[in-house]
Amino acid sequence: xxPIELSGxxxxxxxxxxxxxxxxxxxxxxxxxxxMADSAAAVTEIARHQPVYGRTTGVGANRDVLTSDPExxxxxxxxxxxxxxxxxxxxxxxxxLLIRVNQLASGGSGLVPEVxxxxxxxxxxxxxxxxxxxxxxxxxxxxxxxxxxLALGDVIDGTSALPLLSSNAITLAECCLAYVExxxxxxxxxxxGALSHVAMRGNAEVYDVRVHEARxxxxxxxVANRMRALLAGLPLAPARIQDPFGLRAFAQVLGPAVxxxxxxxxxxxxxxxxxxxxxxxxxxTVLHNGNWHAMPIALALDSLRLSLHSVATLSTSRVANLxxxxxxxxxxxxxSGADASSGVMMIEYVAHDALAAVRSTAQPATLGTAxxxxxxxxxASFAPQAAVLTTQLLDAxxxxxxxxxxxxxxxxxxxxxxxxxxAPASIAPWLADALVALPPVLxxxxxxxxxxxxxxxxxQWGDRQxxxxxxxx
Length: 473
Description:
Elements: E1 4-6, H1 13-22, E2 26-28, H2 30-47, H3 72-80, H4 90-104, H5 113-124, H6 142-152, H7 161-165, H8 169-199, H9 209-213, H10 218-231, H11 245-248, H12 250-272, E3 280-282, E4 285-287, H13 295-322, H14 325-328, H15 345-361, H16 383-415, H17 419-422, H18 427-437, H19 448-465, H20 469-472
Helix pairs in contact: 1-4, 1-8, 3-6, 4-5, 4-8, 8-12, 8-13, 8-16, 8-19, 10-12, 12-13, 13-15, 13-16, 15-16, 16-19
């Protein structure tokens, strides 16, 4: 496979994730190599005449301590490699190294190109170092990048340790993976919601273009467009003049999540191509700065999780409606068989258990505070923690949506609707998929396997028809 050139520009979160997952060979471009060499020569000359943070000084509260010790960089890597004991997943490490090379290629670090090429060799030979969580709070992935520096060996000298650490590359990798998962899952929600609409014979007036022209919130408009396409021509008369919130406010609740996943994707696109170095070598000078602060990423993650909490809440409300004869005209809990059968009664409990996990992980990480290094550093974004919470929330949200999907398909079976009955609506083929995948047995039994099937089905659907809004804009 021909190596992909990393140049410090043009990398998108989706492309980066794809390169990492396929283990595509990469290389440092010649232009980037020269850029790095020129930057390294410039900072070496500058350091002869003025202090340069981390290169001729200590770090943190030791920023005012000058040093010419050739072992300074080694000691910095050794001390800063203090982390927790939990390793990062291999896909996060691989993607993080790829992102760090791309950032270095922009030439703002003052590192020699041999450092980036050493990381490229680790990637291409699949000799990934073991990197560990702990110590990253959104002001640079100091611990894991120090571990990377130690793994690079002699290519890191006494002046290049701090520049290597001046990045959130590992956190950005975790964020990119979460972004792709979130974008994929968000695009599956309308399919699940449309099946609930069919099961409850919802009123499609809520998606009328005039409704959304009257309040043109961007994400809401896009969701309404999608739902109109899925339900257009649905030959079922609506059961009510006005539906419950789970159907009536569907676009208004999912819309903000669409907007926030766009925001996250755009923020990540900037940072994975950024020369967010401290100090920054630019224009023949050295600029000490705060570009290591990951607040844009942390806020985007927090906002996305809060919006997805509402999506999960509305899904559980649809589950509640689906088990209620007043909204479906079917049996209580969609039961079949002997009197007092429970049907999908336990589905609601599973959904609310998962919703509780969504709720707990939706708490904003940016509410955290930190005062470190004798007060030299008294703020942090906690973007790494926000990334972990987002990954956990997405898994719980998938469980909530699986509960809705299993319940909606069961209601459609009991109602006797078939994909042929729903034609020409675009939701008909998706219903056909679900009817084949999910067991038709309606007698009381454990639905655990059904939920697992539903989770897998949503993954297949996401892989088949994902649109990543922030990257197609």
